[in-house]
Amino acid sequence: MTAFRRRTFCTLALGSAAAVPLASMAPAAHAADLTDPFFSYDRPARFGVVREDVRVPLRDGGYLAGQLYRPAGDEGKPVPGRFPGLVYEFTAYADELESFGTQAAYFVQRGYDALVCQVRGSGDSPGTTDPFGPQEQRDNHDAIEWLAARPHSTGRIGQTGVSYGGHTSVLAAVNQPPHLKAIIPVNALHDWYENTIYRGGIYSARIRAWQSGVAPGTLRTYADHPLYDDFWRDRSVMSRWDRLTVPTLEINGWYDRYRDGMVKNFLAQPEHVWLVSGPWQHGSPHEQYAGIRPGAYLAWWDRWLGEDPSAPLPAARVTSYETPGPGAGGGWEQFGQWPPPDARELTFALRADGTLAKSPGPGATSAFDVNTRPEPAREDEQLMFRTPTLRQDLVLAGDASVRVRAAFSATDGNIAAALYDEAPDGTAARITEGWLKASHRDGHTALAPVAPGFEYELAVHIWPVHHRLVAGHRLALRLSSDDYPEIDSDAPAGRVRIRTGARGSGLRVSVRGRP
Fold first, then answer.
1. Range list of H helices, 15-133
2. In sequence order, which residues have a C-beta less than 8 Å from that of residue 363 and are 6 or more positions away?
3. Using only C-alpha atoms, what is the Rg of the chain?
4. What would the mean pLDDT of 152-159 be, rounded to a whole number?
5. Average pLDDT over residues 295-312
6. What is the mean pLDDT of the chain?
7. What's the pTM?
8. CA distance readout (Å), 73 to 49, 77, 301
9. Residue 155, by phi and psi: left (phi above 0), alpha (psi -120 to 50) or beta?
10. Helix H or strand E encompassing 171
11. Could you tell me which residues are beta bridge partners of residue 367?
């Protein structure tokens, strides 16, 4: 199912303004954009490639189907010697095996074994697929140790993958197989509940088609666990951040749905994680951006698996592309930390006149009707707040949050918050977003009561970005009850009142410099 592997950007109406996908503003990139030697690393191919179809034995007596690619000589047979190994895509996407093999060949030609492995219940692997569950994690552990035990292996194993394979890579790391020495997760999770299934406690509508195609049994099991419990902790990196200790190169996209998780993994383990965040959507970066080449991944493997101290690491812990571009964003920059050291918090009050301002103005209330339809909200089903026209550029660098003081006419409700870059002609590109169910305002492990008409404070976390709004544009905030298909339109019908002005709601953003 490809629907889950690419981010789809919604077109929304912002009052009278038209919204365009921010990803459409992404750059036509060139390799020269990245000057760090890490990203231009390469060395000549030395071998051919031979494929062996294998069955990887598991501790419970089962097996996984896999394709083992090995360095080959001119006669097409495996060459003698011992090589480090890669688990290259431990995934349920068996329909992409040929593509994975083609990608892995680059590393095999340079002296690596590569195992492409289908998870339990996918492809020719028997059983039932339970994405990222405890059984699948045990299977992954066994696959790593099986590869390390091959007589042609040095015993130093890495793992990589995109999306599903990225999730399994970072989960493998926190399970700490003895022979796993480094990972490269691409567009990967920190928590399956928060990133994908229940966003702010609200089921994500877009995931159901993926579930139906990949793991239909989860349509029931996920619905049976609307609160955060051990079921989700077992599928989480966040619950085991202290065990994320192998060298980790995170390849993150600023237009990707897992950017919040990738940044949180880095913040949790900055001594072990390097973060590369570029201008791409969900999927393989090299297919979207010419500046990301497999040689950078080779440098990582040569350093940690090949034990070559001359193989470069990224010049800084964080390599980030300031979107959009070209002509607006600043392109690639490198930092020793995230947010950048010159970042600071900037706060705006949500005013009754629909502006975002430093001064809150008089206290008041604004309101919108709940949208119960799986389609964009009408003007009466959303509230818009905008800064004045920017006199100079404003660079967002980090996450954001909106503190919403809200009263609901029903016994629960949703708040969806989205930030936009609004141009002088009224077109608005969506920058980032966040969601929260009112009954989850105190966390996701237990419901907090919502009494109709009572006012509550909801802190809505908004996913991080690195984005420049140029002078002449405006920063806009949209509040509503829905954001289909990012979340279900499941809020009870009714009306939501938002306190504005003095002692009202506010927006916090992380910005660079002194705007």
1. 97-108
2. 499, 500, 501, 502, 503, 504
3. 24
4. 98
5. 98
6. 93
7. 0.94
8. 8, 6, 22
9. left
10. helix 164-175
11. 497
